[in-house]
Fold Cell wall-associated polypeptide CWBP200.
Amino acid sequence: MMRWAASLLSRGEQGELAWEYDALGNCTALTLPDGRNLKQLYYGSGHLLSIALDNLPVTEFTRDTLHRELSRTQGGLTMRSEYDRLGRLRRRDVFKGDSQRPAPRVWSRRRDFDYGNNLIREERDDNPFSQTLWNYDNAGRLLSQDGAQPGNEQWRWDGAGNPLDRHSAAQVMHNRVTELNGIRWQYDIHGRTTEKDDGHTRWRYRYDGEHRLTDVISEPRDRNKPRTKVSFRYDPLGRRISKTSQQLLQGRPSGNAVTTRFVWEGYRLLQEIHDGIPLTYVYSDSQSYEPLARIDGVESPEIYWFHNAANGMPELLTDGEGQKAWEGINSPWGKLLRESSQRMPVVQQNLRMQGQYLDRETGLHYNLFRYYDPDSGRFTQQDPIGLAGGINLYQYAPNALGWVDPWGLRRSCKPNNPTKNNDHNQGAFARQWQGRGVYKGRDTWQNTILKENDIVYGGVPGQSGFYFDKATLDAAAGSRESLWKSLQVLPHPKFGYRGQIQAYRVKRETVAGTGEALSQDPIKFGAGGGTQFFLSNFRTVLEPVGNPFSMGK
């Protein structure tokens, strides 16, 4: 058997990183600047099975036939996951012990969603009195929260998605919020936030020529509290590599400066370093920004495991014995409202929503290419990619419970979407198209696995997510009308049935929705009976084979 591997090397201010890959392009080992190795073991076409630091296990996964996570080990705990009929993460239970012989449950989370995949209810520990409810408008914007943690709250929005102050009738000009919930903001001619004042502290922001935040000066109203200055440095890729905090006395630096340094794996935070001690972050898969574990120290490393909200924001850290080391109560927009630590010395946890890092000195979240203000639920600067990131240049998302923006550029698919990773539950996604327009929605969809190099067919021009198999093509005996009637596709009112067919090769193993095309209306559509496939990720998993060929009438 031929084996193939590749390696990459990256050098930075904090040292050297090296990666090793298998023949399928999966990263099997990451060498940290201190020489330790993070090892990943995969099965099949690249599904993560386990992670280890050298010979120290970090986590092990079990998965179902769709390769969705069923369980993961977290030190002395095991977390189990359940999904609803649409493939959304419905429930998570945490048990003492391993995945094979778990002891009684420690805690649980149960979630319900609406038809737009918005999170509408979360229940803790099967206790209906511990539930939290959320309500949205037709645009998916969060309107209200009702629950014990973190409490009841309501929001108002204008037509552009800007939050409106409950006690003010002032309009938001140019999408720049200047007052909200007793906090005031000021902007410069570039649309960058230059000042923030909450009545207790005033913060002043400074930027460089690349519009990157370089300094934040905090000025407490209480004269017994010192003024502080926090400075930031970036590498040529725009990633923040250090922050330095120092007190000011009569406008001049006073006392010892405290510097935190950062190491990056691509555009994902890998380490934060305090006094030479690294905190290393491990994520749930190679493409994810949802944290799985944190490894503190080098000589005698201690591992903490993350327990996250539906949007991937940390709620708990547990240690190797399964004990809570840190717990946080968060607002729906990512603000850390309360936190507690049962460890001495106190364990701090600074990761917020996916891709965000909390700067406690400023209250802002560093979000790679921008900074995010959890008090407004918006970015402090306009989007660097302009309107490509959305029509509102400051908006994070319609709601932060179901959307993520790890780069601070453009919100991405909802974590609760059944096709989040584009191949988890295609059958469920296909069912969402049922009953639209003249289609009555009689088809039954289920999931199947298309193997690498399988061939499917589709009509051209106009590639879409719907395809069919060779048996359906052969049954049409060269007749385009017979083919499309078997698949319940109406002719174009001007051009008729599509007369050309393209064969496509499946580039990698993937989940597809499949089912028989049942008759919608025999007179209008024909008898049906063809086998159809649905692939929302067709652009990434299919490639054309040869040239299109023509069908007869």
Remarks:
- The longest helix spans residues 480-486.
- The chain has five helices and 40 strands.
